[in-house]
Write the C-alpha cells for this entry.
Amino acid sequence: MQQYAFDMRNISIRYPHFAMENLNLSLAKGQVLGLVGVNGAGKSTTIRILMGLVKADAGQVDVLGYQLPAQQVQAKYDIGFASDDMRLYKNQTLQWHMDFIHSIFPNFDHGYAKDLLQRFELIADQKMKGLSHGQRVKACLLLVLARRPKLLVLDEPTTGLDPVARDEVITELADILRDDERSVLFSSHNTHDIEKLSDQIAFLDRGKLLALQDKESFVQSWARFRCQLLPQAQESVLGAVSIRRSGQLAEVITDQCSSDFAVVLHQAGFKVIEQHRMSLEEIFVANVKRNR
Amino acid sequence: MLNALDNTVMIKRLIVKDWQLVKKSLAAYMLGGVVVIGMMGMATPLMFNSGAIMMITLMIVIGARSAIELVVNEKKDQTLAFMMSLPVTAQDYALAKLGANLALYLVPWLLLVLGMLLVIVSTPVTNGVIPLVVLVSVFILLSYCCYLATALLTYSEGYTVTVMIITNLLLNGFIFWIIRMPAVHLTLEAPTASWNSTTLGLLAAGSVLVVVVLMLTAYLQKRKTSFL
C-alpha cells in the first residue's frame, strides 16, 4: 500500500475571483514535489488547505495520517512550513525565536540549528529587523528545519531573493533535502528552482492541476520539432500539443515524444529538420497554453 | 474538530509569548501610571483634574497599543503566518490573543483604577467622585473590548483605528452625559461614594456589555473557515 505524506482528494473551493474544482494531489513519503504555477494559480490556496489554514468547500485532506483541518494540531507537530510572506518578530533576536520554537517542539535539534547558523551565515543574537530579506528567509528555514519535521512545506521561499541569495538557499536546501525520510512540497513560479530540487513536478493553473509527473518523464516526453511543411501537410498531427506555422516552416510541440513521433509527423506532411528537448519552463508554458 | 481548550498548553505558550513581546513597554506605561497617580494624590483641583485627564489618556494608549501591537501588527508585519504554522487552530490562536490582550490590559487597568481609588480615599479628594471614576474606567474598558473585537475579527488597522476614534469620541460624550446626570453630579462633592440605582445600573450595563462583546467575538471567531 502506498504511504502518503499527504493526500488531497476532490478539493473544491470558491472565492469571488478564483475557483478550484476537484483537485487531486498527493505526495509519497520521502519524495520532493515541486508545485509550479503562475501568480494566482492556486499554489498558496492549495498549501493553506494542506496546512488547515483554509477550509475547503468540499473534499478530503489527509496529512501524515491526520484528517485536516480537524486534526491540524497533531499534524502540525510534524509539518514544517515556511513561505515567502512569513516574517519573524522584528524586535526579537533569532536566538529568541529558536528558544520559542524549542519550547513548543521538544525535538528541536540545537546542534543542527548551530550547524545551519554557520551554513546560512546567520548570527543568533541579531535582531530580525537588521536582517536582509535573504537572511530572513534563511532564518525561517533554520527554525523549520531544526525541528526535523516529517513533511516540509515551502511556499515560494525563494521569491524576492536576489540571484546570489536564491542560489545559496537552493544549494543548501538541495543538500538538506537528501534526507530520504523527509517529504517536501515546494511551490514556486520559478521552474529552475523546482527543477533543481524536485523528484516530482505538478503544474497548477487557475485552480486546476494540469499535470503531475516525475521530472525525468516530463523532460523525456516533451519535445519541440522544427519542420519543413510538405505540400500535403495536414492541419493537425496526432500527439501534437501545438503547431506554429511560419511560411514553409512549422514548430511542433508534443508531450508524446518517441521515435515514432517523427514518423507520425512525416506521415502528416511535416519533414523534421531539428528536434529539441524542452526546458521545464517551456514545458510549463506549453502546458498552460494548451489548457487555457 | 478539537475543542480549543484541548490545546491549553499551546494557548498558554502564545499568551506568554505576547507577554514577552510587550513587557518592556507595559512596564514603561505602568511607571507613567505611578507618576499620574502621584499627581492626582496631590489633591489640588488642578493636579487631580490634570492627572485624571492623563490617566484617561494612559488607559486608552495602553489599550490601543495592545490591540494594534499584538493583533493588527501580527498580520501587518506578516508574523501571523509564522504563528499559524505552529500546532494551533485559528480558534486556539484567537483564544490566545483574547486571553493575552485581556490579561495584558485588564491587569494594568485594574491596578490603575485601584491606584486612583486609593488616592481618592486616602487624600482630601472627596469620595463622591468614586462612582464617576469607576464608570468612566468601565467605559474605557468597554471601548477597549470593542476595538479589540474589531482587531481580532478583521485584523484591519483601518477598521480598528476607526472604532478607536468612535469610542474615544463617545467617551467624551459619555463623561459629559453622566456629569450632567443629577444622580452623579449632585453627589460629586459628597464625603462618601454614593452608589444609587442610576450609577449601579450604568455599572451593570457596562459590565454586561463587556462580557457580551467578548463572547460575541469568541463566537464569530469560531465560525471563521478561512485564516491568513
Q: What stands out?
A: The helical segments of chain B are 8-41, 45-76, 80-84, 90-122, 130-154, 157-180, 182-185, 197-223. The two ends of chain B are 19 Å apart (CA to CA). Residues 4-223 of chain B form one domain.
